[in-house]
Design brief:
Elements lengths: L4 E5 L5 H11 L3 E5 L7 H9 L7 E3 L5 E3 L1 H11 L14 H22 L2 H4 L8 H19 L15 H9 L6 H7 L1 H11 L5 H7 L8
Helix pairs in contact: 1-3, 1-7, 4-6, 7-9, 8-9
Keywords: Transferase
InterPro entries: Glutathione-S-Trfase_C_sf (IPR036282), Glutathione_S-Trfase_N (IPR004045), GST_C (IPR004046), Thioredoxin-like_sf (IPR036249)
Protein name: Glutathione S-transferase, N-terminal domain protein
Length: 217
């Protein structure tokens, strides 16, 4: 059995969420960068572990393979509750956490799965880019709904309770529709993202993955 976790990822992608979670657990872990859009030995290795060819893909210490960021977050919480990735069992905030964790993964995430490469899903359509033209406004509507659910009683999405939802926010505020859009339409989410980026445990990671993040002095 290996002693460390190994994360296959792409800087700035959803794997950054899992990287941040691993940092908070304090577990030993390694990172392997994979460009999942380019044929390479690294991508072939990824495909052997994850037929979808997606990141994050996490190799556990016993060599079990985990995919799907929400599943990984829940597993890491079970193994490292001290990281506070998920509210405790029975906590009043747990249903809210689970609802919005699934909302991100089941509603918002697919807008990128299908919108990033519309020609893949509409190969016989003359104008596949129109899929993104439809998905873009829908994604914005989803983010507005998510932002409206953020608590105003504390610094985090759940109020005074930090959770992995804040990690998702910090990473995904850098994706389309873009940081400027979030500043204008979802400022509460940007404020959460900035707090996460400046956490001492995570600042170096976010600085390495996103150009705009200033390192702590």
């Amino acid at each position: 059995m290996r002693e460390a976790y190994t994360l296959l990822g792409c800087r700035g992608c959803g794997s950054t969420i899992v990287a941040a979670a691993l940092e908070l657990t304090g577990f030993p872990w390694g990172y392997e960068e994979v460009d999942y859009d380019v044929d390479s030995p690294e991508r072939d290795r990824l495909l052997a572990m994850n037929p979808l060819g997606q990141v994050p893909t996490l190799i556990l210490p016993d060599d079990e393979i985990m995919t799907e960021s929400a599943a990984i977050i829940l597993l890491l919480h079970d193994r490292a509750p001290h990281a506070e990735l998920v509210p405790d069992a029975g906590a009043a905030m747990l249903p809210r956490f689970l609802r919005w964790l699934m909302f991100i993964n089941c509603a918002i995430y697919p807008t990128f799965t299908y919108g990033d490469n519309p020609e893949k899903w509409l190969p016989k359509t003359r104008h596949p880019e129109r899929l993104e033209e439809t998905i873009g406004p829908h994604r914005e509507q989803l983010w507005r709904a998510f932002a409206a659910a953020a608590s105003d009683t504390g610094p985090w999405f759940l109020g005074r309770t930090f959770s992995a939802l804040d990690l998702y926010i910090a990473v995904m505020c850098n994706w389309r529709p873009g940081r400027r859009w979030f500043v204008q339409h979802c400022p509460r989410l940007v404020a959460i993202a900035e707090r996460v980026e400046q956490l001492p445990e995570l600042n170096a990671l976010f600085h390495a993955h996103f150009d705009h993040v200033a390192p702590l002095e």
